[in-house]
């Protein structure tokens, strides 16, 4: 068992117990810890994208960041032109990215099959969050949040999508098991993890369950893969050097996000913050998922 | 005289049913492990004896628990925890015995025993001394304390000393057996906290309305799987290793 999965298990065990207290102060502390974890480990897992892309120093690094920011800007414009399509693209790429990080170790000969498998795995995680919080999420319709219509479509039909995705994923896992690309033990581990993620989304608040998944299952795994890569390429020698490597862009990203949110509060309305966060998150995810896809194919 | 006291098993009571099947399964497993002990190589005899003791102790407790449940309809919490206080540390001893060939120290055994006793004592306080009607704070406090002991055993089995020793044994059968036992700790033992959270004041009791009858059902099923399964893994390892010695 890897450390990040162990941490995910014990965090779920403790948070499930704390959940029963139904205390506002405990909930606030847990929420703050989740926000801090996403802001640190979550952001950090994408903070060395330039190195993973091969643009380590000097002008190449500068142009990489410029290109990165340009893609983010273009995607933000895409949101204003066609929010439904932008949201859908964001979800598809996020699903693919989550699945790729989790399942990349299995060597599957067909890129089409592996790509579809990544998408289904990540899609299930996203749909679980929507399905178990359907009523709460539907309440946002008509509110001031200005969420795209496709979001409500997904929430309404989350059960059907979830069952279809799960059925297809089981079929793919069965196929790759027959092909010998995955062992019984690995298959059991994947099933266990998915069951645990399902329990987490079923029993906990959506934000907390998502934060646990995003930080411990996804980001920590990606960081560990990045650490191994940097060490193998002799970019770093120890953990401290690795920490210093992703510190500058993590801080820059946090400052950037804070500035945008402050501008929204200053010139617009507080209710726009969730929508702005969604757009910001998607703008960061798009270039990051492309870089990670290139990184996984290269490694 | 005894026929006057016979209690019938209600057809619609899965808890009573599983108390009887649990008892018989444990007893049968004990007989099996005791007799099979003579077939294995000397170095595995102690492991098989411990397996037999685990299921035998559980069988005796189940004998009393099934009657207690039928007579009162209540959870036999104290009896259950007496059973676990004896059998769970013995399961930890199994980890030590399996990894002894790779140099496991006695201190490892004691650490595992201590962690399991810690887990059970706080679990017992959490369940048995919960105020009337159920106090969530009490349940959560002792639940968290008990979980700490569980986490230590889980860590040792998956990533800590036990896992390392199994790897160092350079014996794929031992490595595989320890891995299966670690799965028992991860999945099989996880049923106990679920049962704990069904008690009055527990979270599953509050949120999903699961009650003490669900607890006994969970515990009975989990006990049978964990204790007999644990023993069968050790038995399988002992037979494979004995056959290797015979073939050599």
What would your notes on this structure say?
The complex is a heterodimer of chains A (299) and B (248). With 299 residues, chain A is mainly alpha-helical. Chain A contains 13 helices and no strands. In chain A, helix 4 packs across helix 5, helix 4 packs across helix 13 and helix 5 crosses helix 6. By secondary structure, chain B is mostly helical. Chain B is built from ten helices and no strands. The longest helix of chain B has 36 residues. The radius of gyration of chain B is 19 Å and the shape is globular. Chain B starts with 13 loop residues before the first helix and ends with a helix. The model of chain B has no long low-confidence stretch (mean pLDDT 88). The interface between A and B is medium-sized, with 18 and 25 residues.
**In oligomeric terms, what are we looking at?**
heterodimer
* Whole-angstrom Rg of chain A: 19 Å
H/E topology pattern of chain A:
HHHHHHHHHHHHH
Shape of chain A: globular
Which class do the helix and strand fractions of chain B yield? Answer: mainly alpha
Q: Outline the biggest β-sheet of chain B.
A: none
Beta strand count of chain B: 0
> Which structural category fits the helices and strands of chain A?
mainly alpha
Strand percent estimate of chain B: under 5%
Figure out the total of helices of chain A.
13
- Strand element count of chain A: 0
Low-pLDDT ranges of chain A: none
Largest sheet of chain A: none
Described by the principal axes of the CA atoms, the overall outline of chain B is globular
Q: How far apart, in Å, are the first and last alpha carbons of chain B?
A: 59 Å
Helix run count of chain B: 10
Features:
heterodimer; A: mainly alpha; 13 helices; 82% helix; B: 248 residues; mainly alpha; 10 helices
Question: Can you lay out the helices and strands and say which pair or pack?
Answer:
The complex is a heterodimer of chains A (299) and B (248).
Chain A lengths: L2 H17 L4 H21 L4 H4 L5 H24 L1 H21 L7 H22 L1 H5 L10 H8 L1 H22 L4 H20 L2 H27 L6 H29 L5 H26 L1
Helix pairs in contact in A: 1-10, 1-11, 2-11, 2-12, 4-5, 4-13, 5-6, 5-13, 6-9, 6-10, 10-11, 12-13
Chain B lengths: L13 H23 L5 H31 L4 H23 L6 H23 L7 H23 L2 H8 L3 H17 L2 H7 L5 H5 L4 H36 L1
């Amino acid at each position: 068992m890897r450390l990040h999965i162990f941490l995910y298990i014990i965090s779920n065990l403790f948070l499930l117990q704390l959940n029963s207290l139904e205390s506002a102060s405990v909930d606030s502390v847990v929420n703050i810890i989740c926000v801090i974890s996403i802001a640190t480990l979550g952001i950090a897992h994408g903070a060395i994208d330039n190195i993973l892309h091969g643009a380590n120093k000097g002008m190449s690094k500068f142009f990489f960041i410029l290109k990165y920011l340009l893609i983010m800007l273009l995607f933000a414009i895409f949101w204003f032109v066609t929010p439904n399509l932008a949201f859908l693209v964001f979800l598809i790429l996020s699903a693919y990215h989550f699945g790729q990080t989790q399942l990349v170790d299995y060597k599957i000969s067909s890129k089409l099959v592996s790509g579809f498998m990544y998408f289904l795995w990540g899609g299930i995680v996203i749909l679980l969050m929507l399905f178990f919080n359907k009523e709460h999420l539907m309440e946002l319709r008509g509110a001031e949040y200005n969420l795209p219509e496709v979001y409500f479509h997904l929430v309404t039909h989350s059960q059907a999508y979830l069952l279809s995705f799960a059925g297809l994923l089981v079929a793919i896992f069965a196929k790759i098991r027959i092909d010998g690309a995955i062992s019984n033990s690995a298959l059991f581990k994947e099933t266990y993890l998915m069951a645990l993620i399902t329990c987490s989304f079923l029993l906990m608040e959506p934000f907390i369950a998502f934060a646990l998944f995003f930080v411990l299952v996804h980001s920590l795994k990606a960081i560990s893969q990045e650490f191994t890569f940097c060490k193998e390429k002799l970019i770093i020698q120890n953990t401290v050097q690795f920490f210093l490597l992703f510190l500058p862009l993590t801080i820059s990203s946090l400052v950037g996000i804070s500035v945008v949110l402050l501008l929204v509060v200053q010139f617009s309305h507080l209710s726009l913050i969730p929508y702005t966060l969604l757009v910001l998150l998607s703008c960061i995810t798009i270039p990051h998922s492309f870089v990670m896809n290139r990184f996984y194919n290269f490694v | 005289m005894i026929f006057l006291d016979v209690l019938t098993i209600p057809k619609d009571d899965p808890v009573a049913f599983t108390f009887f099947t649990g008892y018989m399964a444990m007893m049968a497993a004990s007989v099996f492990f005791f007799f099979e002990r003579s077939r294995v190589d000397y170095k595995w005899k102690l492991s098989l004896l411990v397996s037999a003791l685990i299921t035998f102790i559980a069988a005796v407790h189940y004998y009393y628990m099934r009657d207690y449940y039928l007579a009162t309809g209540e959870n036999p919490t104290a009896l259950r925890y007496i059973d676990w206080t004896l059998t769970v540390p013995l399961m930890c001893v199994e980890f030590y015995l399996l990894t002894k060939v790779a140099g496991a120290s006695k201190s490892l055994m004691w650490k595992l025993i201590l962690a399991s006793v810690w887990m059970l004592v706080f679990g017992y306080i959490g369940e048995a001394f919960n105020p009337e009607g159920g106090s969530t704070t009490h349940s959560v406090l002792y639940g968290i304390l008990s979980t700490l002991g569980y986490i230590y055993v889980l860590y040792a089995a998956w990533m800590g000393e036990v896992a390392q020793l199994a790897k160092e044994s350079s014996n794929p059968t031992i490595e595989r057996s320890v891995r299966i036992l670690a799965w028992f700790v991860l999945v099989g033992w996880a049923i106990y906290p679920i049962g704990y959270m069904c008690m009055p004041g527990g979270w599953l009791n509050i949120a999903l309305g699961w009650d003490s009858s669900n607890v006994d059902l969970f515990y009975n099923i989990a006990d049978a799987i964990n204790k007999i399964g644990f023993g069968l893994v050790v038995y399988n390892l002992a037979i494979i290793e004995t056959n290797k010695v015979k073939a050599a």
